[in-house]
Amino acid sequence: MEGIVIKTTGSWITVRMQDNRKVDCKIKGQFKIHGKKSTNPVAVGDHVEVLETPGQEAGLINKIMERHNYIIRKSKKLSKIYHVIAANIDQAFLIVTAAFPRTHAGFMDRFLTTAEAYHIPATIIFNKTDLYDEAMQERHNELETIYTGAGYPVLSVSAFTGFQIEILRCMMAGKITLLSGHSGVGKSALINALQPDLNARTGIISDYHNKGKHTTTFAEMFELNSGGFIIDTPGIREFGLTDFRKEEVAERFPEFRAIMHQCQFSNCTHTHEPGCAVKAAFEEGKIHPSRYRNYISIFNDEEFDEIDYREQ
Predict the structure, then answer these.
(1) CB within 8 A of 285, min separation 6: which ones?
(2) Is 49 helix (H, G, I), strand (E, B) or coil?
(3) 170, 164, 204: which is closest to 188 by C-alpha?
């Protein structure tokens, strides 16, 4: 029988079968993603074929159906091993906040660039808006200006007060939505606000480091009463790009992609060439400095250091 992977914990994989049963499974043999080494060849969202043997409690996954998309990241810095975050995604919601732990533009750009590379529509969701002071609201406004200017949908919500949660619920209806973001930005709290009976775990913020404690240790897919599914992922503090050439990076910035055909050279890297439309737009203030500088960082494959874009 066929089913969809809704949870992976490393050694065990939970599959929601076509008859709605949930079956714990093991993997038969080894699977590879286009020849790449992966920490988890079977990911949440995968459609799989499961063999069930009478008398055996566990099923056996013996085939992964072709994915229409997936999103992966380096398992750790400088690693040649990759981790599949999820597969067969309709849209990705990047959960960020201008409160704490504050989300940095460099992290956002790396995630958004990766989503673009896998043709996954991304929306930026600002959470914890109920906690804003004047400085936080100012930073929020700056970030919102940057990313709406780049062409990304942006929505402000509060899991605590319920502000605009109904809009978020409507956006997710009938779709498979990936939630991602730093630990502590409130992914689990948002899931609880969207559908309280899911009882997703919520975490505690360290007052000293302003870093979220990891409350989700593995990816998991939940079915929504309003239709569709939500994929909760472990909090990510860094996002190493992989699986596409640096020459393709500019194509993953929507505001670059819209004008790069105007460059003097067809193979322009938008770093030093004369007649570069992207550089001209940056110098004219049409492309925000943080977006251009993060592009240069990604293009040069620098290890991302979480620095506020206003300090760059």
Answers:
(1) none
(2) strand
(3) 204
Domain ranges of the chain: 2-64, 88-232, 247-311
**Distance from C-alpha of 91 to C-alpha of 105, rounded to nearest angstrom:** 20
Homologous superfamily of 88-232: P-loop containing nucleotide triphosphate hydrolases (3.40.50.300)
Which pLDDT belongs to residue 5? Answer: 97
Report helix, strand or coil for 120. Answer: coil
Average pLDDT for residues 54-83, to the nearest whole number?
A: 82
| Whole-number Cα distances in Å, 118 to 25, 143, 208, 215, 241 | 28, 24, 37, 27, 12
Which DSSP category does 282 fall into?
Answer: H
Asked if 298 contacts 270 with a C-beta cutoff of 8 angstroms, the reply is no
What pLDDT sits at residue 83?
Answer: 81
Q: Report the DSSP beta bridge partners of residue 47.
A: 4
What is the residue whose two structure tokens read 């569709």? Answer: 228
pLDDT tens string 73-116: 776 655 667 788 899 999 999 999 999 889 999 889 989 998 99
CA atoms of 216 and 137, how far apart (whole Å): 28
| 230 strand-pairing partners | 177, 222
Domain 247-311 architecture: Orthogonal Bundle (1.10)
The DSSP result for 82-109, as a single string, is EEEEEES-SEEEEEE-SSSSPPPHHHHH
Strands (E) located in the chain? 2-8, 13-17, 22-27, 47-51, 59-64, 70-74, 82-87, 91-96, 122-126, 154-156, 176-180, 220-223, 229-232
pLDDT at 227 over 80: yes
pLDDT band at 263 (very low <50, low <70, confident <90, very high): very high
